[in-house]
Design brief:
alpha/beta; Isopropylmalate Dehydrogenase; 2 domains; ten-stranded mixed beta sheet; globular; binds 3-isopropylmalic acid; binds magnesium ion
Length: 367
């Protein structure tokens, strides 16, 4: 097979500086493990707007469709708040998700042992937590029509539409059941079937799909209760599948439980391409953190873990992904901390590059 290709879109804010560390890690795998990638860099978000007047140029979109995987840093920043909705940095991200048809968004919420004290919850409630939220990413209220702001009888009305077809629900449900089979065979589906027809259909279709996965224990929960249960007793969950908007909210909630919001990666996967790899984009869950951008303070771990997910889900290199994840765990266990992870006085934070150095050293030590 030819050298796998990566499109790297660092984006805005801390995106470029955390991505610089990912590039060093990619180079390490090329030099030390013989895993070479054909890397192209391009712009997304505000950075693309500054150059092209749009948050994603058509040529970049076309490139994203061709490569084996896209790695994205972060988009957005206060400078772009004044822009028209249609060219805001976020629209670049949403266009990538929609046009690549990346319907299954995998958001792990994992509590690193060394960081359990950072959770706002009691340590025993979160220690060892390892859940996976599968968020539907290309439909629902994010994209449903009609939408817009119209005026009726002199009053403005804001309209968005929650809309799901059976096939959209089915394909994300299948992705979630497949993941559940590889994990602890437990899946909880969340919607609001008590108030929304789209929720009733969601529950029906997920139940239908479950017939093909008799080994997976399926439960259903209203999403509001799900939010409450996530905070009350998160370890009751293993894989959660939910729609686009609930998934957006529940995944932030789950991420924060772990105390590691700045540490969590995500994978957005679509249908298999001709070479058998899924269409894929990998990005950290955190945003562009404009308040610390350009200062070398950002934690690159979420972005590096996103590359680990790429190794696992796009390139079938699960062992190398584990190597990278273990190197990160070791660095954390050794007490290396960027500023966002500092609780004890007396510990000096390392810079973004310093964290990269420590991870590279741990990778060297793994050989
Ligand atoms: C996320 C973000 C995005 C979303 C924004 C930046 C459009 O919050 O990836 O969770 O709402 O999906
Ligand atoms: Mg979000």
């Amino acid at each position: 097979m030819s050298t796998p290709s990566l499109l790297i879109l660092p984006g805005d804010g801390i995106g470029p500086e955390v991505m610089a560390e990912v590039i060093r890690i990619i180079d390490w795998f090329g030099d030390k493990r013989g895993l070479k990638f054909d890397v192209t860099m391009d712009l997304v978000g505000g950075a693309a707007y500054d150059k092209h007047g749009v948050p994603l140029a058509d040529e970049t979109m076309a490139k994203a469709q061709e490569v084996d995987a896209v790695l994205l840093g972060a988009v957005g920043g206060p400078k772009y708040d004044v822009l028209d909705f249609s060219v805001k940095p976020e629209r670049g991200l949403l266009r990538l998700r929609k046009e690549m048809d990346l319907f299954a968004n995998l958001r792990p919420a994992q509590c690193f042992d060394a960081l359990a004290d950072f959770s706002s919850l009691k340590k025993d409630i979160v220690a060892g937590l390892d859940i996976m939220i599968v968020r539907e990413l290309t439909s629902g209220v994010y994209f449903g029509e009609p939408r817009g702001i119209t005026t009726v009888d002199g009053e403005r009305i804001g309209i968005n539409t929650q809309r799901y077809t059976e096939s959209e629900i089915r394909r994300v449900a299948i992705a979630a059941f497949e993941l559940a089979m590889k994990r602890n065979k437990k899946l909880c589906s969340m919607e609001k079937a008590n108030v929304m027809e789209a929720g009733i259909l969601w529950r029906d279709v997920v139940t239908e799909v479950s017939a093909d996965y008799p080994e997976v224990e399926l439960s259903h929960m209203y999403a509001d209760n799900g939010a409450m249960q996530l905070v009350r007793a998160p370890k009751q969950f293993d894989v959660i599948v939910t729609d686009n908007l609930f998934g957006d909210i529940l995944s932030d909630c789950a991420a924060m439980l772990t105390g590691s919001l700045g540490m969590l990666p995500s994978a957005s996967l679509g249908a298999p391409m001709e070479n058998g790899r899924p269409k894929a984009m990998y990005e950290p869950v955190h945003g562009s953190a404009p308040d610390i951008a350009g200062q070398g303070k950002a934690n690159p771990i979420a972005c590096i873990l996103s590359f680990a997910m790429a190794l696992r889900y796009s390139f079938n290199e699960g062992d190398e992904a584990t190597r990278l994840e273990q190197a990160i765990e070791k660095v954390l266990a050794d007490g290396v901390r960027t500023g966002d992870l500092l609780a004890d006085e007396g510990v000096t934070p390392v810079s973004t590059t310093g964290m990269g150095d420590a991870i590279l050293a741990a990778l060297d030590a793994s050989l």
